[in-house]
Specification:
Blueprint lengths: L11 E3 H25 L3 H22 L2 E4 L3 E7 L2 E6 L3 E5 L3 E7 L3 E4 L3 E4 L5 E12 L2 H7 L2 H4 L11 H27 L15 H4 L1 H15 L4 E13 L1 H40 L7 H16 L16
Antiparallel strand pairs: 1-5, 2-5, 3-4, 3-6, 7-9, 8-9, 9-10
Length: 322
């Protein structure tokens, strides 16, 4: 969706000189009114001058509505009787046509720390996952006219009055939260929690994906927020755990996987040591062993090397065959 945002090219004057002009204009009106009351004797001329002063005062009052101040990372969306005229992003104090509606928007980065939600991963396991999103308004046209701020705003209870800009940013924050949750559920459903069961060791998972998963999540959120003119600066998973109802079971499974992996390493090392022992005995001709003795020796060595308890030595005081 292409942007329709454009820079404001209408009349925009420096604010300080116009402030002085407007003050002098007001002083002139007061002087004219005082002079009329004190020096004009004709009633008809007095009425005409008083009406003139009133009209000029109304014009002066309208002129006061043309001033606007724009701070760094702020913008004003200019609307003239319902028609979009452009956006002012330059910092400073300005005066424009007072009949322009000047919608204020902040372009500053904002943080969203979403509470962990329960989702199902690719394997169907329920997991708790949370994220942090840094976002900002990037397209003032879309932010102002494409998305309905009123429908995005969360419900406000009581009689608390909220500043219009703050309320508008709350609406954007609510929109970002809903879309970020949708993107998070989508990404979490694409990948398994970790490498277990039927998940290959080379497959990307939520636990091992790291920056790659965060990049995919950021892309998904950006796609959903483009319509509102909102840009995601950064998105990352900041909480990941199994849901409480299966956490204990999954912990026991992880412990079992760790024990099995450790046993495999121990057995692999023990077999290598037995092979080396038999080879050295044979190469150095220390002793000749028949197949039965080799089998007994392999059995004893494997028991010693693979056992969790310390081996108890037995001394053979007789011959080899006793």
């Amino acid at each position: 969706m292409k942007t329709k945002e454009e820079n404001f090219v209408g009349v925009r004057l420096a604010g300080i000189p116009m402030l002085l002009v407007n003050l002098l204009f007001l002083i002139g009106i007061v002087v004219l009114f005082v002079w009329t009351m004190n020096h004009v004797e004709s009633s008809a001329l007095t009425v005409a001058l008083v009406i003139t002063c009133v009209v000029l005062l109304i014009i002066n009052t309208i002129f006061w509505g043309g001033f606007m101040q724009i701070e760094p990372n702020e913008a004003r969306v200019m609307i003239f009787f319902g028609e979009y005229e452009g956006t002012v992003k330059d910092n400073g104090y300005f005066w424009v046509n007072p009949f322009y509606t000047k919608k204020k928007l902040t372009l500053r980065a904002r943080n969203l720390d979403a509470e962990p939600i329960k989702v199902n991963d690719k394997s169907g396991n329920p997991v708790m996952i949370g994220l942090v999103v840094v976002w900002r308004v990037a397209d003032t046209y879309k932010a102002s006219f494409v998305v309905d701020n009123a429908s995005m705003a969360p419900a406000v209870t009581g009689a608390v009055m909220v500043d219009n800009v703050a309320q508008k940013m709350k609406a954007y924050e609510n929109f970002v939260k809903i879309q970020a949750d949708a993107a998070l559920r989508f990404v979490a459903g694409m990948y398994a929690y970790d490498h277990s069961g039927s998940v290959s060791d080379t497959e990307l998972t939520l636990r091992s994906g790291g920056e790659e998963i965060n990049s995919i999540l950021e892309t998904q959120i950006n796609e959903r927020l483009t319509i509102a003119g909102i840009e995601v600066v950064e998105a990352r998973i900041n909480y990941l755990a199994y849901a409480p109802e299966i956490a204990a079971v999954m912990l026991r499974r992880q412990q079992a996987d760790a024990i099995i992996a450790a046993r495999e390493k121990i057995v692999e090392g023990a077999v290598g040591m037995v092979r080396m022992a038999l080879k050295k005995l044979s190469d150095e001709q220390i002793i000749e062993l028949d197949e039965d003795k080799k089998a007994a020796m392999v059995s004893n060595l494997l028991v010693v090397l693979c056992s969790e308890e310390g081996a108890q030595p037995v001394l053979n005081a007789g011959t080899l065959h006793q």
